[in-house]
């Protein structure tokens, strides 16, 4: 039967020709360029993931954790780990840096400003200086209203210390000061007064900047003869 007559018959009797055509099973269809079925192709991702997770179990170390490869890399068990020569160079460099910091402690930090607290039995003077020693502010008890014998004592030194703390904040010196060193001189009553102000509410902005506290009180070893002790009565 010719193809022309077959096509005519198909148009005239579609139901009969449809039954005579061979049926192709959908289960036998395979993916192009592959010998696996569709169902097996869908499971390829999970199989690869299982192989990656179980790869370490086949290693000679015997560790079954999926993170064992990362752990080995962190511990330096792989071939690309740094050698002992590199570690020795690093330790040698660390020792040299430590020696440089001992010789020059302010090499990696800004040098501190200084707040000199000069306390003697007649007056208290507070002086704020830059790291090079140039003064920024110097105030004594006489500049806040105390005169003559009234400049000595605990209360004038306390008021002076509180006034200096406020002046440091109002004049914007806190923007310039990174580290502060407090230098005491003398054993007058203003020494305790300044310490209480610094540790109190008035010194809350200055207290965190203090990196060092030193004492530069003059001590005499021999030298000239001292004045005679004053005795009354």
CATH architecture of the domain at 109-215: 2-Layer Sandwich
- Quantity of strands, as a count: 5
The Rg value, from CA coordinates, equals 45 Å
DSSP summary: helix tally = 8
**Alpha-beta classification:** alpha/beta
The low-pLDDT segments are 25-29
CATH fold node name of the domain at 109-215: Nucleotidyltransferase, domain 5
**Element pattern in H and E:** HHHHHHEEEHEHE
The CATH class of the domain at 109-215, by name, is Alpha Beta
Strand order, main sheet: write it out. Answer: 3-2-1-4-5
| Largest sheet composition | 5 strands, mixed
Shape: elongated
The rounded distance between the terminal residues' Cα atoms is: 156 Å
Oligomer: single chain
Q: What is the CATH H-level superfamily of the domain at 109-215?
A: Ribosomal protein S11/S14
Arithmetic mean pLDDT: 78
InterPro entries: Ribosomal_uS11, Ribosomal_uS11_sf
Protein name: Ribosomal protein S11
Family: Belongs to the universal ribosomal protein uS11 family.
Biased composition (Basic and acidic residues): 41-58
């Amino acid at each position: 039967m010719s193809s022309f007559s077959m096509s005519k018959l198909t148009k005239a009797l579609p139901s009969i020709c449809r039954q005579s055509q061979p049926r192709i099973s959908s289960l036998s269809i395979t993916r192009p360029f592959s010998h696996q079925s569709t169902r097996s192709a869908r499971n390829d991702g999970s199989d690869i993931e299982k192989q990656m997770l179980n790869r370490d179990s086949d290693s000679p170390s015997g560790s079954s954790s999926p993170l064992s490869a990362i752990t080995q890399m962190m511990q330096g068990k792989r071939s690309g780990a740094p050698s002992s020569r590199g570690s020795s160079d690093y330790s040698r460099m660390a020792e040299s840096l430590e020696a440089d910091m001992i010789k020059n402690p302010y090499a990696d930090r800004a040098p501190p400003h200084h707040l000199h607290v000069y306390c003697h039995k007649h007056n208290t003077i507070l002086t704020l200086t830059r790291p090079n020693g140039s003064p920024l502010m110097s105030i004594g008890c006489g500049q806040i209203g105390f005169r003559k014998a009234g400049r000595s004592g605990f209360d004038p030194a306390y008021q002076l210390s509180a006034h200096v703390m406020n002046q440091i904040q109002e004049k914007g010196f806190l923007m310039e000061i990174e580290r502060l060193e407090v230098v005491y001189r003398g054993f007058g009553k203003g020494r305790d007064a300044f310490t209480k102000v610094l540790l109190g509410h008035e010194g809350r902005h200055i207290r965190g900047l203090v990196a060092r506290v030193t004492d530069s009180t003059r001590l005499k070893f021999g030298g000239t003869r001292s004045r005679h002790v004053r005795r009354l009565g």
